[in-house]
Amino acid sequence: MTPTSPSPRKSEALIDLPSPGRPDTGPCQVGVQGIAANVRAIWNVDFGQPLEHVVTSLLAIASPQLVWSELHSLGLADRHAMIRAVWLLDGGGPARAEAHCEACGEGSEFEMDLSMIELPPRVEGVEVQLGAWTRNCRLPSAEMLEKAADSTDVAALCLGSSREEAAPWVDVVEEALAAHDPLGEIVLVGPCAGCGQMLQAEFDLKLSWVGWLRSRVRRLMADVHTLARNYHWSEDEILSIPESRRAVYLDFCDVEEPVEA
Q1: pTM as predicted
Q2: Long-range contact pairs involving 55-63 (C-beta distance under 8 Å, separation at least 24)
Q3: Among 143, 159, 180, where does a domain finish?
Q4: Number of structural domains the chain divides into
Q5: Is 46 domain-assigned?
Q6: pLDDT, tens digit (0-9, with 9 covering 90-100), for 75-97
């Protein structure tokens, strides 16, 4: 029998998104790539910007065929699907979250394979019902979130109505949006390690992804600081050195360990 080698990790995933510039023509497949290894590109992202701006800039690295404004106008469900694809391509691992048990005081950690979360067919909007009334509800985008101060504003923007009109619809809208964006709010459930009581823990995919990539940049900044201090190289010179060679130079530095991210 001829031995087989393990399958290589995929370098690209295809995501159904609105056709750029022609949303009424139906979805098209857009490729996304892993970006964790492209630390120099991530280095140039301003992590001090609002969260959705940071996400858009990171997604622009993962999907260079789309321009920044196109990515920023995508619905949140589409953006979350892209984030999950990039996370899995980069080997981000399972979703992990901790919960504290009020009954026994123990802490428990739960995890979930993100690839197991099934996504509903993508839609631009849904119908929501409150009593005898039915309304059309758009799925929110990053641009809409930036205009909203609270959940009532989000509901008003999704319904195309005033705050006063939207107020009774907030819970109905949130329930409909959650059903069509299961990656937007991920809840992990499991027994307490101490007493067995069932616990819930929330995992924020977007924040976790941004935080993970930011930590990679901070580790690189610590490496640049160490090498610049010891070898007096410029930032550009250090960043041009392959990662494997930088690691050797860091081993040669008779100084403190680089600062942890």
Answers
A1: 0.84
A2: 55/79, 55/83, 55/142, 55/206, 55/210, 56/142, 58/86, 58/209, 58/210, 58/213, 59/32, 59/83, 59/86, 61/35, 62/32, 62/33, 62/34, 62/35, 62/86, 63/30, 63/31, 63/32, 63/33
A3: 180
A4: 2
A5: no
A6: 999 999 999 999 999 998 999 99
